[in-house]
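Treating backbone geometry as a discrete language has practical consequences that deserve illustration. In the encoding step, the backbone of a single protein was reduced to a row of integers, each denoting a local shape. The amino acid sequence and the backbone structure tokens for this protein are reproduced below.
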Amino acid sequence: MSPHLSPRHFFGAELRHWRRLHGLSQDDLGLMVHASGDMIGKIEKAERWPTSELAQTCDVALATSGALARLWPLVEAQRHGARGRAGTSDADNFGGHADNASDDRLEPFPAGKMTLRVDEEGNVWAQVNRRTLLLGSMAGVLGQVVSAPRDGAAAAQQAPVPAGEDQFNFADYVARNFSGVRLSRPVPDYGVDWTVLLPGGRALPGCGVSVQVHPARVLDKKVRATIDDVARTNGFARRAERKMMVGADTDGDSPRYFLLDARDLRDHRPNAKEVSIPSAYELDDLTYGLLWAASNLDDALQADDQALEETRADLAAYERLSTSAVSREAAPGLTEVGHMWLGSDFCARHILRALPTLPQVPTFWTREQRGEEASAWLLFDHKYRYLQQTTQLLGASAVRAFCIPEHAVRESPRYERILLFLAIALMESFGIEVRVTTDEEYDSIEGFVVAPNEQAIIANWVRGDGMWHVDVTGRTTVVRRFTEVAGDVSAHSVIDGASPVMRLQALAHYLELDWAWLTRRCGQLGQHGSTRLVRTRSHLVSPAGLDTACSYVGSLSTSR
């Protein structure tokens, strides 16, 4: 792929990136958007022109937040230019094989010159002839793309970075250790060393982080980063977008990198020539997972801010009903994260209203299987309050069951498995006994709360057909089924243990996570908190759940 050759090549490269990010084959995506896999392949290789409808459909299927639809007008402008040059020939064959850059019929921008520029807020704009369009966070086109996808088994490999452009080997380290991350060198840089594009997920849209890298040294477990150009760093810290300062210690056998939210510099350390960074903020799967989840959730919810409040008010009438099922079409202007938040918030309030009516201490059934879903427990502000309130209402230890099939573990990167582990640890910290089944038969069971053999509350927003489905029921068949599921999982839990530490040790083993490393790193992060590592801006996101979970897991390192 040669995304720099033309808008059509760039579109194809982006389509391929988003498809692979979701682990889909060309045939898989074709089925989702009602096209053939061959057609998808040709569009990715710039051998066929995408239609506007296909761009929009792929945006929905791949949760790109409109990235492809924003690119499509550039492709259309190129196509009109191609038709004008090709006369009566088939425009889809213009230039021969689109990946053959040596073909003398291929002109990089047949519709005219395409100019890209970056404004002071880091937005990327494209101008073709007299048309100007916002490309959003596609800053990778401005410089050398460090992590472009490859074909076949090499898809997860990252492109090498010229040594002169990666003085501290930061980009090389990130590219080798965190699949799906893309880095570029902005031109002009406006004080930014690297633009880092964090990948999305099934619902997370992906987001960008601006980075400055500075030399650092570790002395007596303290990290000191040196600021050579104070004015440049001050300007960087004042920028509005999400930004990160990285301290790079390259003196040892292996380089180490330490992260600090750059707003910490702006608020507390202006004009500093040396900055202290907690050693707990070392870049690894724990801190990357936190940055990935918090940045994605926070940016999406901040973008939805006013629309989310208005939609919540519009849907408030459903709270008077004991049963309701609301589709995502009821909130068409929101991101997938906005839908997640609405569904999660409504289900939490539904359970809190109905919980006092249950005749006995119930068992909870939860559908989260991956870190992306589980991160809501750690970062949505209402989820932490919900755990506090349910604990107060029940006044006794409850059981919460999960279905986490083996394929979900295999398919999840390590940082997502850590997020899932922390969400379950958070529940254990509230005195909730967690049970886990691997039986895929239970994969489709909706979220519920059941008083065995008597009454059930249905509350589901995870992987549902709509934003939520809630109900309160005493129907015998439904209650019996939920009772059987809860009983079976409790009797055959793969993390069975008499104490929280035993259950969490078993969970770490099942998720293929090192227990000693987890307790040590969580203890370090719990001591410092996460607010200097990543500051959230949406009032709907809070680090309370995450910090509680880390502190709790850290305390278990001395437990017997």
